[in-house]
Amino acid sequence: MSSTGGERRLLVRDLAQLATPGGTAAPLRGQALGEVDVLEDAYVLCAGRSIEDVGRMRDLPRLDGDVEELDGRGLCAIPGLVDCHTHACFAGDRVDEFALRASGATYEELHAAGGGIMSTVRATREAGEPALADTVRKHRGWMLRAGTTTFESKSGYGLDRETELASLHAVKAAGGVPTWLGAHAVPPEFDDADAYLDFALAEVLPGAAEIAEAADVFLERGAFDIDQARRYLTACREAGLALRLHGDQFTERGAVSLAIELDARSIDHLEATRDAGVAALGRSDVVAVLLPASALFLARPMPPGRELVEAGAIVALATDFNPGSAFCESLPLVCSLAATQLRLSPAEALAACTINAAHVLGRSDRRGRLAPGYDADIVLLEAPDWRYVAYHLGANLVADVILQGERAELG
Ligand code: NIG
Ligand code: FE
């Protein structure tokens, strides 16, 4: 087989297995969500930044020209993982709050008392753009070591013009997909949520819409109500942003119907969603993004994962990486939680944090599958069977990451 025009080529050969969401469709739902294609004794050939070919070693054609080779013996290849929901741009930590929660304080009580999200807002406002950019780069390194090759990150810890825009810039500079979470909490300089939204939509949205790809809102008791969320999201849609919602985390307040009404890309959390919400998502094209590490970290009920899959919903998985409710950057751990707590099969979990997560980020035409034409983002797991990604609880099995056709420095 001849090279496609002098591009750098990398052959990963003799893989124990190669596993990828099957077919060409995206997003996947219903039975197709669980249909992973597995090739034993496999190879993947990268040309430049793309995948040129995948197959069985016995079918490997003769390759002319310079080809770098990587020994895949004892390794399984899966697509680079896609984390479609993180809050990676923050300063400081919440380790004191974490310790307080262990002795009985709840997340919502800490938030209501001016701690929680607002304590991270105070630290993030003080940090300045260079420090924020360093922090996002550091967090991106943590994610990469856990196998995440594409990440989204929200702003939402600035809540003033300067820090929100600096956060979005920092995410983009670190290679992330920025989402403007302008409606995360009401900062103390405003009397109420409506006054804050007047400011955010007039003063921040025009700049945010130039950097971000989507907008997000925290629709919850103590944050924004349904009318405020509708107003915020409608303005963001008019500015050209895709729409996301944090909904049904603690209480059901109409977030599912609002997401469907506004044709949002996703609704994320859903720990409190009951049967009617599950059925409505099953009939809709809004992705249900499940964040079981957040439910675990806050000792909250898990979202109804199996029920959503059975209802035909488009399900994705993400970490929700943030300093307060999910200090966890590991999608493999999320896959373990999906299999043990949400009753998703390893195959459903893999599709949920690859091709379906790529769909949430508008990138399913080139991310989230190991197939010709897709980006050469590949995770090599040190395991005899790809399902170890969910099975080996808490382990980091990532031996190597190929990012855009090159071996990544994992540090
Ligand atoms: O998705 N629930 C709202 N936002 C984040 C948590 C942010 C924080 O606690 O700092 C979440 O869980
Ligand atoms: Fe979140």
Please provide a written account of the structure.
The chain is an alpha/beta fold. The protein has helices at about 95-100, 105-110, 115-125, 130-145, 160-175, 195-210, 225-240, 255-260, 275-280, 290-295, 305-310, 330-340, 345-350, 355-360, 390, and strands spanning about 10-20, 35-45, 50-55, 70, 75-80, 80-85, 150-155, 175-185, 215-220, 240-245, 265-270, 285-290, 315, 380, 400-405, 405. Strands 1, 2, 3, 4, 5, 14, 15 and 16 form an eight-stranded mixed beta sheet that branches. The chain has an eight-stranded parallel beta sheet with strand order 6-7-8-9-10-11-12-13. The site of N-(iminomethyl)-L-glutamic acid (NIG) has 13 residues, from helix 3.
The secondary-structure class comes to: alpha/beta
Global mean pLDDT: 97
End-to-end C-alpha gap: 35 Å
Looking at the chains present, what oligomeric state does this protein adopt?
single chain
As a whole number of angstroms, the C-alpha radius of gyration is 21 Å
The strand count comes to 16
Ligand catalogue: N-(iminomethyl)-L-glutamic acid, fe (iii) ion
Helicity, in percent?
25-40%
**Which descriptor suits the 3D outline?**
globular
β-strand amount: 15-25%
Question: Quick one: biggest sheet?
Answer: 8 strands, mixed
Low-confidence stretches: none
Counting DSSP H or I runs of 4 or more residues, the number of helices is 15
